[in-house]
Design goal:
By secondary structure, the chain is mainly α. It is built from four helices and no strands. The protein has one domain: Cytochrome c-like domain (Cytochrome Bc1 Complex, Chain D, domain 2, Orthogonal Bundle), CATH 1.10.760. Helix content is 57%, strand content 0%.
């Protein structure tokens, strides 16, 4: 009985995580992030995988990158600027950044 409950709990957690990851990918598509970024390869901007690797040990990465999503920036990944995205709310930016950082 305990094993069955444990297995069910793990399965539910996995489904919740998968749904959350899928929802974040959908959010990225809906906010046009995929026009410049891809999961595994550089497009106009760096890949999500490269971003996650670069900021893996940065405890302030979520706040820093969420601000960059909303306000834009240039210089960290070269001279191609990332435009500001004021249509992305602070909560959406945090969700997107957390998702990107989980793509290691």
């Amino acid at each position: 009985m305990i094993r069955t409950l444990l297995a069910l709990s793990i399965s539910c957690f996995g489904l919740t995580f998968a749904a959350s990851a899928n929802a974040s990918a959908e959010l990225a598509r809906s906010k046009n992030c995929m026009a410049c970024h891809a999961a595994e390869k550089k497009l106009i901007g760096p890949s999500y995988k490269d971003i996650a690797a670069k900021y893996a040990s940065d405890k302030d990465a979520v706040a820093r990158l969420s601000k960059k999503v909303r306000e834009g920036g240039v210089g960290v990944w070269g001279q191609i600027p990332m435009p500001a995205n004021p249509q992305v709310s602070e909560d959406e930016a945090n969700t997107l950044v957390k998702w990107v950082l989980s793509t290691r």
